[in-house]
Amino acid sequence: MNGLYYYPDRVQNAQELIRRIDEMKWLDEYSGDRRYQHYGHTFNYYISGGPTPMPDFLAPLIEHMEGMCKLALMSYDYDGSAPYFNQCTVNELLPGQGVEPHTDSYGYGDLIATVTLGAGVTTIFRIKEESDQEQGRLASDSARLASDQEEYTFYAQPNSVYYMEGDARWNATHEVPGTTEDTDDGTIIPRGRQIVLVFRHV
Fold first, then answer.
1. What is the pLDDT of residues 151-190, one digit of tens each?
2. Which of 22, 29, 37, 202 has the CA that lies 20 to 30 A from 76?
3. How many CA atoms lie within 13 A of 112 on its CB side?
4. How many domains does the chain have?
5. Positions of E strands within the chain
6. What is the domain range of residue 76?
7. What CA–CA distance (Å, rounded) separates 175 from 169?
8. What is the rounded CA–CA span in Å between residue 153 and residue 1?
9. What CATH number corresponds to the domain at position 13?
10. What is the pTM of this model?
């Protein structure tokens, strides 16, 4: 899919990150049984809120991801004077829990990065209908082009990173099926606890 980039095995200190995340306060006020944390900028999934300090232990990960996205960030006039990824949402997904199809708010930048810790998980991207696309913001002229693939499914392995821009960011929804097992290259994998970190720009 245009604008979707996936990198397996890019997080070296996953267990330490999970330990530090679990030391922070988990919330579940607006997303049912799924627990979450917000840093840098909070929202209740309906209304944006005020700033919350970004934990220091996430700084090396942010720097690492911005290095991976360096060429893409240059196209968005990012000068490197401050971290581009200044907002983070941490989601906990237990077996059977999922994420409904959605497109992130246009207030959260042209480039979004996702880090998968713990267990891996199936992720599905679907190109939206043209009428839905027109209601959202298009990032660039290239994003206005129709994608050759209406649906793209992949297994995000533990410690992997993927980021989205263009069609994947603006013209598609993404979701995580609420199942108890996933399939990777024909192999059935029981789903375990997954920690997903989504980094955005406000």
1. 999 999 999 999 999 999 999 999 999 999 999 999 999 9
2. 37
3. 23
4. 1
5. 4-7, 35-39, 87-93, 99-102, 112-118, 121-127, 151-156, 160-164, 172-176, 181-184, 187-190, 194-200
6. 4-200
7. 13
8. 10
9. 2.60.120.590
10. 0.85
